[in-house]
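The protein record minuted underneath.
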Amino acid sequence: MSETTNKHALLAVDNESALIPFARELAARDWGIIATYGSDKKLDFNNIEATRLEEYEPDTYFVPDGAPRFSAELEAALEGEGPLVLPGSAVELFAGGSTWGYAVQPEIRFPMINLVYADIPRPFRESNWPVKALESGMRGNRIVVCDESQHKKVLQWLDGLNKDQSESEFLQELYRMADSEVDQWRRADRIRRRGSSATLGAIGIRHTVFPHGETASQPDAAFFADERGNPLAVSRFNLLIGAEKYDDIVALKHLLGAGMRVAAAFDQNTGAVPKIALGAKDGKMYAAGIARDPSEALAKMITSDPEAFAEGLDVLVNFQVTRDMAQQLTDHGLYDIDGANGPLVPHLVAASVDREAIKILRRTEGMRVRTGAALAGMNKHSRYTDPEYKSVPGGMLKTSGDRFLLNFRGPELSTPRIEASEQTKEDFTLACTLGRLGMKHCVTVVSDGQLVGHVSGELNPRAAVRRTLQTVDASRFEGAAVHVGGQFPDKKLAKELAERRIAGLLFSKGGRYDGAIHPELQRQDVSVLTLPENI
């Protein structure tokens, strides 16, 4: 560690994908890095200089329960203004529960620690080391980081860019998230100590029990809440009408993910979030409308795909549902498919619902209505990027959320020879955002803030474009923005789209036909945008 370094960070981070980028940023700002065992190995492998915190070193000594100790010396150093000193001492070596020897741990001196970054991994573990590190850091008024979502704000603060926020306000914002993390760990720990099965460490605390899962042959279904300070957490939504269903939580996950990404994309590109209405079924987006007026956004969604809407769609809106809107949603009665019937909107999720609207919605048998006030405040900071886990035989798959948002000022997007109008840019924003929610080879068509076509599940982009041309009414292409998930397949299909008078086309560059497609579309005054293939 450089002797000239005067700022130091203690890193105890289980998530390597979060640890490495943040540590690189600190090192670039000439911060000294002190890392716990495990974190230091990851940093060393990635060529980031760090000094190991000799708090727990299994090569030197063991503790009976295999868990790292959080020493009084480290606690005092994080809460005080002086350097950290770990005095030399003889340490017992354990084997089979009994002492079999001693080892000497030398004295180690560390400078003052100004920042603490400790995450609390899922599933929750018995070790309280990260919990105590966060608590001590807060008591010592240190910069405390517990989640990857805080990286950007903290680095901006270190660079002196958060001039509109005092140091106290900045620290309190960090501490609110840390307090939430610590509180969840302690709740899970209390339940674990009682021997209860009410906690699933990988997820959170049991919140709702359902009669069954997706089918009646799946008993013991439950929802485990992990709010983590998120105002859009599923457990924060209030069910006003109907009974809780397992399928509704699954639908809410998809709707929230889509709504947050649409809000974030518009906030990033236009500086404002429109009124948003989304309709989905079984995780697939069928209907969407955006407008400045909420009634207009809802009307666009309802007429987006009348055939899909007639079969029942789960709906999310980021505004209050009024009496007239409730009437719009229930005017068409029940759908009837193969002898089965149900409400056209079986599950409605809104920022709020007024009293008159509730009276109307209650009349529809089988309808569930829930509200979440935070929907009205969705913005570019609301998008869902938490890791996702999928159980597989003998383990778990983990992937991070999609972090990409279409950005007309970003370096990834090509500069079109024919400039897109502001309306076309908005249509591109909605088409690209919804298109990336689907499968890899999908085509999304948006016109005047309304989703008019969404084809997915095809084997390749050529098949997806062909089916789009076959299934979407030709009149709905005029003035539309089209997003193709992948490279554009060939010149002939591009010409067919141009003949339907589309306003713009967005796809991944690098296809063998790019050189022929661009001139063909430009002759038809079509704005052509491309993104790198790996995005």
About this structure: The CA atoms of residues 101 and 154 lie 45 Å apart. The radius of gyration is 27 Å. Residues 55-67, 93-100, 334-340 have pLDDT under 50 and may be disordered. The chain has three domains: 8-192, 234-377, 422-531.
